[in-house]
């Protein structure tokens, strides 16, 4: 690891100006991903600005519904927050499906969004990687592709985004509040992460020196039910092979009034399934509808050599999640959605 | 104009097991490095050094954390508890005693991390934190009551601690035995009661009836 200088930020604004004042500065929050990448040599900051003690650590509930979450709220605290548990269960389930108890105690909301891909070639300095070194080439494309993307990849990068939390945020129409040298701006969570295209080194639309300050979640649609479902190689403590978050609200006659669906582990960003949602809204909520909607979305999939299995896996995850959310007995349905 | 910083080491204070240590550290040093190499507290183990195995688990402000991922320089003033601070051979923590009674280890390398993580996990459960194994209806209810710890819950909550010997069945049993002996941190939702010094008492009592009494309010002494 290269030596680096260090300072503790005194305010979000001071953190942003400190970033501009030091060459090759990075913000440090929980450190669960950045410190690991520094040990691997993938990241080599010249200067660390510790933002972990900034007072961006509260969850505020809005009077009409809705939440505003500070970027420093730890993943375990967000998952345990009463308002998240009762009103945003897909977010609680997604957080609890990620990492381990120790890591969730450290990992922050902002850091979770900014974590890097776990593509093994990205983490291996001996393997060419366009994300780590633009123009070097992509080792994954012709390498072991089992865990790679099936949607939205490019000839330059086939990595996936590893977050569970971000998938739920995409389905809940959350927004990310950023503070930068030019002031604050807000970006939809579903548009915060990018597809790789020919600039895979950029994971997000974050501009240099911008700090993730808050997340906001709108009030859930009336009567909506939501869940997160994840398929992985182990029962616990593993990244997803395919996951889905859904928010579903039905009319009394069983017609879908509101549907939001997002996939995880299939692409370089959480994949909001707009095509599936168009099929769902206004249609009777049953297994056939769900399968038709999910198939319409996944028709765009372009599997690589070793990951064609991800398409039917994602289909099964999403159809089962939606079916569980549409079943009348609420507790049992949520149980099925949470496993 | 803000002057550029040049120092790559800093002097800071860590409160470890209720003792303040002022140390000068290279910014690259983790809390684990400082504990083992500067403070001679070698109970916390360096297994993977990447936050994957849990052998380095400590309590940071009463909550379990991978000390291999904590840069020491970012933790000036922090309060840490290591396995050495939980108890010793003469006066073991109830979970240390349960590990011994249940033979919950083979080679022992992961054991300090398992025990510290277990204490942190029992504390989280006492505070009502849910897990991935928590049934959906319980997850959404959020009463602040202590979480019920089924075996499935214990296994899920301990998945950040690997044991290459595969001693998991006995580790789960030891955690079941000790689950009545760790309460929430003070100041958290579920009311804590009783002094930490009782922690050796009543260890043979029925676990379920003892669970709510939280006779050992502090996760560590």
SSE order and pairing:
The complex is a heterodimer of chains A (339) and B (221).
Chain A lengths: L4 E4 L3 H10 L3 E4 L5 H7 L6 E4 L8 E3 L5 E4 L4 H6 L1 H6 L1 H8 L4 H6 L2 H6 L50 H7 L3 E6 L2 E6 L22 E7 L7 E7 L10 E9 L5 E9 L6 E2 L1 H7 L6 H12 L11 H17 L3 H9 L1
Parallel strand pairs in A: 1-3, 2-3
Antiparallel strand pairs in A: 4-5, 5-8, 6-7, 6-8, 9-10, 10-11, 11-12
Chain B lengths: L8 E8 L2 E8 L4 H8 L18 E4 L2 E4 L12 E3 L1 H4 L7 H9 L8 H16 L9 H6 L9 H7 L10 H11 L28 H4 L11
Parallel strand pairs in B: 1-5
Antiparallel strand pairs in B: 1-2, 3-4, 3-5
Helix pairs in contact in B: 3-7
Protein name (chain B): Xanthine dehydrogenase YagT iron-sulfur-binding subunit
Pfam family, one (chain B): Fer2
GO molecular function (chain B): 2 iron, 2 sulfur cluster binding; metal ion binding; oxidoreductase activity, acting on the aldehyde or oxo group of donors
Order of helices and strands of chain B: EEHEEEHHHHHHH
How would you characterize the largest beta sheet of chain A? 5 strands, antiparallel
* Architecture (CATH level 2) name of the largest domain in chain B: Orthogonal Bundle
Tally of strands of chain B: 5
Give the CATH H-level superfamily of the largest domain in chain B.
[2Fe-2S]-binding domain
**Into which percentage range does the β-strand content of chain A fall?**
15-25%
The helix count of chain A comes to: 12
Topology-level CATH name of the domain at 225-328 in chain A: Enolase-like, domain 1
The CATH C-level class name of the domain at 225-328 in chain A: Alpha Beta
Features:
heterodimer, A: 339 residues, alpha+beta, Uridine Diphospho-n-acetylenolpyruvylglucosamine Reductase, domain 2, Enolase-like, domain 1, five-stranded antiparallel β-sheet, four-stranded antiparallel β-sheet, globular, disordered C terminus, B: 221 residues, Ubiquitin-like (UB roll), DNA polymerase, domain 1, 2 domains, five-stranded mixed β-sheet, 5 strands, 29% helix, 12% strand, 2Fe-2S-bd (chain B), oxidoreductase (chain B), metal ion binding (chain B)
């Amino acid at each position: 690891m290269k030596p680096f200088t260090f300072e503790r930020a005194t305010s979000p604004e001071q953190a942003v100006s400190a970033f501009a004042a030091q060459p090759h500065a990075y913000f440090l929050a929980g450190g669960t991903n950045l410190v690991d990448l520094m040990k691997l040599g993938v990241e080599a900051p010249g200067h660390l600005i510790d933002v972990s003690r900034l007072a961006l650590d509260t969850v505020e509930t809005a009077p009409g519904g809705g939440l505003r979450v500070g970027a420093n709220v730890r993943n375990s605290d967000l998952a345990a927050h009463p308002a998240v548990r009762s009103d945003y269960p897909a977010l609680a389930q997604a957080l609890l499906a990620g990492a381990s108890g120790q890591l969730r105690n450290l990992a922050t909301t902002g850091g979770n969004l900014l974590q890097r891909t776990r593509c093994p070639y990205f983490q291996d300095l001996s393997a060419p990687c366009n994300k780590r070194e633009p123009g070097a080439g992509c080792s994954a494309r012709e390498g072991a592709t089992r865990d790679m993307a099936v949607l939205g990849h490019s000839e330059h990068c086939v990595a996936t985004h590893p977050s569970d939390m971000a998938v739920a945020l995409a389905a809940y129409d959350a927004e990310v509040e950023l503070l930068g040298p030019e002031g604050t701006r807000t970006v939809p969570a579903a548009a915060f992460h990018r597809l790789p295209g020919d600039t895979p080194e950029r994971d997000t639309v974050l501009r240099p020196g911008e700090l993730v300050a808050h997340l906001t979640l709108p009030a859930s649609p009336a009567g909506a039910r939501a869940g997160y479902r994840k398929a992985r190689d182990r029962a616990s403590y593993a990244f997803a092979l395919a996951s889905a978050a859904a928010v579903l609200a039905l009319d009394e006659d069983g017609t879908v009034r509101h549907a939001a669906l997002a996939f995880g582990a299939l692409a370089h960003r959480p994949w909001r399934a707009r095509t599936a949602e168009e099929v769902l809204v206004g249609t009777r909520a049953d297994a056939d509808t769900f399968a038709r909607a999910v198939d319409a979305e996944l028709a765009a999939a372009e599997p690589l050599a070793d990951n064609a299995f991800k398409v039917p896996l994602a289909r099964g995850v999403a159809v089962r999640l939606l079916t569980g959310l549409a079943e009348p007995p609420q507790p049992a349905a949520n149980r099925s959605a949470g496993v | 104009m803000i002057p550029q910083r040049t120092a790559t080491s800093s002097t800071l204070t860590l409160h470890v097991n209720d003792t303040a240590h002022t140390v000068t550290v290279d910014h690259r040093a983790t809390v684990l490095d400082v504990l083992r190499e500067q403070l001679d507290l070698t109970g916390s183990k360096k297994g993977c050094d990447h936050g994957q195995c849990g052998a380095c688990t400590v309590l940071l402000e009463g909550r379990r954390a991978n000390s291999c991922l904590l840069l020491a320089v970012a933790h000036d003033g922090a309060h840490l508890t290591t396995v050495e601070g939980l108890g010793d051979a003469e006066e073991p923590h109830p979970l240390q005693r349960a590990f011994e009674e249940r033979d919950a280890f083979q080679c022992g390398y992961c054991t300090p991390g398992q025990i510290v993580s277990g204490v942190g996990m029992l504390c989280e459960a006492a505070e009502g934190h849910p897990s991935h194994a928590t049934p959906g209806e319980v997850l959404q209810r959020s009463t602040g009551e202590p979480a019920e710890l089924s075996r499935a819950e214990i296994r899920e909550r301990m998945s950040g601690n690997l044991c290459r010997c595969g001693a998991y069945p006995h580790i789960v049993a030891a955690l079941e035995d000790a689950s009545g002996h760790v309460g929430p941190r003070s100041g958290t939702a579920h009311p804590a009661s009783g002094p930490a010094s009782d922690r050796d008492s009543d260890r043979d009592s029925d676990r379920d009836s003892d669970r709510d009494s939280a006779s050992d309010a502090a996760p560590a002494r």
